């Protein structure tokens, strides 16, 4: 048993009146001992549920990210043949259960337009056990679970896209997954993962969330990590997907010499989009809908694909305004640009 970890656990687990937040360095040490299994299983489970009840502070999240940066995989993006910042999508690892994701289509639009994208996550995961991104990509013919880290780096350099797959690329983090099921709640690690950046340099983090306090933690944690340019999305099921059924609440962290945060509201109805989100019935249904769109066929997922693709084409600097983004997204679907890009990737 780690006596050091025991003291850190006592700090956060002492209740409302005497419990305290950890410092950034203390949170980093606690995360290190959990990843390296220096803490016992009993200590790790107790820490994760106590931290969940207390709620993580930005300082603690920054400390956790520090250790993920130290012990986790780090992509080299300094010599990529792309001018645009590398987009890093932070979606919940436990997937989707209610709505069909358009994330792969959005990603293909960005990559086909010269915007490199990094994704990260794992397999079907507690506590939601939803449909994960890696499964959707497998259904489209790209199996990221079969690539070692060197191949993942090479795939990014050749195609502009890669996926950090936890079981293979970061097994230390993946070993904490069973605790999510055993404690029955998402631990604070699940919040930290939405901000995890497996590379540094010219990057554009995009983080999805459900509850407004999570976005507040994003702002403060990113500031502590020296990140001033980012996007936050109150998305479908906490993902980075904009909803068709409601006004999107979006945050722009604007970098530069004088960084600032800007709120942006996007009502899909103002641009003629259908006010409904496509219900998820099965993995096969989701993959079939995406495949049809990629091949230029219309279906009920089209509005969500154009809404999301157009927004991100604008936000990532491909198009000058939202209207142009939506127009380009529709043209890319119609002219088979995504099918061409997917075919190129599959050949590699």
From TrEMBL:
Sequence ranges assigned to domain Glycosyl transferase family 3 N-terminal in this UniProt record: 7-68
Classification via Pfam families: Glycos_trans_3N, Glycos_transf_3
GO CC, alphabetical: cytosol
Claim: Ubl conjugation is one of the keywords in the record: no
Organism from which the protein derives: Aphanothece hegewaldii CCALA 016
GO biological process: L-tryptophan biosynthetic process
Glycosyl transferase family domain ranges (all copies): 97-337
The protein, known as: Anthranilate phosphoribosyltransferase
Entry GO MF terms: anthranilate phosphoribosyltransferase activity
UniProt keywords, alphabetically: Amino-acid biosynthesis, Aromatic amino acid biosynthesis, Glycosyltransferase, Transferase
């Amino acid at each position: 048993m780690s006596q050091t970890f025991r003291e850190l656990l006592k700090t956060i687990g002492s209740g409302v009146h005497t419990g305290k937040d950890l410092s950034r360095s203390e949170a980093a040490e606690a995360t290190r001992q959990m990843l390296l299994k220096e803490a016992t299983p009993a200590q790790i489970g107790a820490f994760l549920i106590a931290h969940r009840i207390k709620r993580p502070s930005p300082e603690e999240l920054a400390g956790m990210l520090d250790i993920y940066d130290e012990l986790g995989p780090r992509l080299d993006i300094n010599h990529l043949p792309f001018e645009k910042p590398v987009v890093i999508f932070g979606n919940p690892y436990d997937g989707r259960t209610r709505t069909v994701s358009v994330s792969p289509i959005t990603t293909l639009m960005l990559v086909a337009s010269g915007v490199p994208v990094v994704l990260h996550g794992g397999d079907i995961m507690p506590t939601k056990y939803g449909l994960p991104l890696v499964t959707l990509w497998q259904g489209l013919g790209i199996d990221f679970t079969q690539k070692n880290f060197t191949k993942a780096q090479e795939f990014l350099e050749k195609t502009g896209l890669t996926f950090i797959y936890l079981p293979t690329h970061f097994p230390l983090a993946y070993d904490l997954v069973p605790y999510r099921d055993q404690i029955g709640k998402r631990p604070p690690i699940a919040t930290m993962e939405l901000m995890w950046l497996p590379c540094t340099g010219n990057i554009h983090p995009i983080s999805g969330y459900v509850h407004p306090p999570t976005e507040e933690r994003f702002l403060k944690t990113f500031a502590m990590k020296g990140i001033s340019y980012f996007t936050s999305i109150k998305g479908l099921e906490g993902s980075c997907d904009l909803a068709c059924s409601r006004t999107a609440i979006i945050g722009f962290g604007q970098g530069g010499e004088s960084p600032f945060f800007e709120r942006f509201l996007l009502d899909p109805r103002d641009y003629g989009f259908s006010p409904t989100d496509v219900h998820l019935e099965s993995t096969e249904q989701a993959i079939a809908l995406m495949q049809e769109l990629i091949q230029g066929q219309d279906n009920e997922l089209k509005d969500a694909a154009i809404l999301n693709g157009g927004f991100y084409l604008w936000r990532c600097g491909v198009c000058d305004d939202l209207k142009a983004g939506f127009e380009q997204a529709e043209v890319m679907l119609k002219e088979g640009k995504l099918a061409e890009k997917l075919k190129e990737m599959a050949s590699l």
